Amino acid sequence: MLIYLLDTSGPSVGVALWQDGVILYEATLNHRLTHSETALPMTEEAYLHTGLTPAQTDVFAVVSGPGSFTGVRIGVTTVKALARANGKPCVAVSALEAMARSQGKFDGVVCPMQNARRQQVYAAAFDGLTGERLLEEQPISLNDLMRELASLAKGRLVLLTGDGWLAYREALSPLPEGWLHAGAENVFLRPAAAAALAAERIDTAVDCGALKPFYLRPPQAVRQKNLVETAKHE
Q: Is residue 77 included in any domain, yes or no?
C-alpha cells in the first residue's frame, strides 16, 4: 500500500511517501515562501524522485489540524484535489499526535504544543511509550497547561515540543526539574511520523468529499462575525 502524506499545518511544509512499512521519501521546508507555493512542487518532487505517480497511490493523507487556519485549509484542499483526481480515499491525521510521534519512544509524558498567540497554545499530552492520549487537544493558557502537565507527570519526565515551545520558551523557563524540551532537530512535525500514523488509521479513510479541517476554535473572521451579531442583539 502506497500512502502520500502532506503537512501544511505549521510553520514548515512536509511531504512523505510511505509504502508497506517503509518511508520511501520525506522532505521538509521551513522558509518564507507560502505553503501554497511549496506544497505542489514538493509533491511533484516526491513522486519524481521515487519513480512513482499519484495514480499508483492508494491513500492520500493530510495533517488536518489543529494549526494555522490558512495552512490547514491549504493542506486539506490540496489532498482533496489529489484524491478526487485519482479516485482514492483520504485519511486525516492530528498535528499534535504526529508531533508527539515525531519524538520517537520517550519514557515519560510528551506534550506537543502549537503557538495559538496571546499566551495560549494548542496542546495535548501523550504517553511517550504507548502513544496513549493523556490530555485532549485543546486551546489552553501557558499557566493552565503547566498545571495540567504537573498533575499528569506524577514524577515522570515531561518532554515539551512544537513551535509553541519555540514561541514561549522564555516564558516557560526555567522548566521544572525532570522536564525537557526537544532539540531543534525534533521541534517540528516529521512528515514520516504523520505518514506512519496514517498507515495505522487506514480504517478511518473517507471519500475526499468528507475530508474536513480540524480546528480547535473558529477562525478570527468567524469569531469577529459572532461578536458583531451578538452586539446587534444586545
A: yes
DSSP 209: G
My answer on whether 88 and 201 are in the same domain is: yes
Could you tell me if 111 and 123 are in contact, meaning their C-beta atoms sit under 8 angstroms apart?
yes
- Residue 191 is which amino acid? P
pLDDT computed for residue 167 by the predictor: 94
Identify which has the larger pLDDT, 226 or 110: 110
d(CA 83, CA 57): 9
What CATH number corresponds to the domain at position 133?
3.30.420.40
Q: Is residue 211 part of a domain?
A: yes
pLDDT value of position 234: 53
Per-residue pLDDT, averaged over 158-185, amounts to 94
Regarding whether 7 and 38 lie in a shared domain, the answer is yes
Q: What is the pLDDT of residues 100-139, one digit of tens each?
A: 999 999 999 999 999 998 899 999 999 999 999 999 999 9
Q: Counting beta carbons within 10 angstroms of the beta carbon of residue 61, is it exposed (0 to 12), middle (13 to 18) or buried (19 or more)?
A: buried
| Domain identity same for 173 and 203 | no
Q: What is the DSSP letter of 206?
A: B
In a domain, 225, yes or no: no
Q: Which three cell numbers stand for residue 177?
A: 526539574
Is the Cβ–Cβ distance between 42 and 27 less than 8 Å? yes
Mean pLDDT of 29-44: 90
Is residue 11 domain-shared with residue 81, that is, in the same domain?
yes
233 alpha-carbon distance from chain centroid: 38
Task: State residue 223's pLDDT score.
Answer: 41
The grid coordinates listed for 205 are 479513510
Domain limits for position 139: 103-181
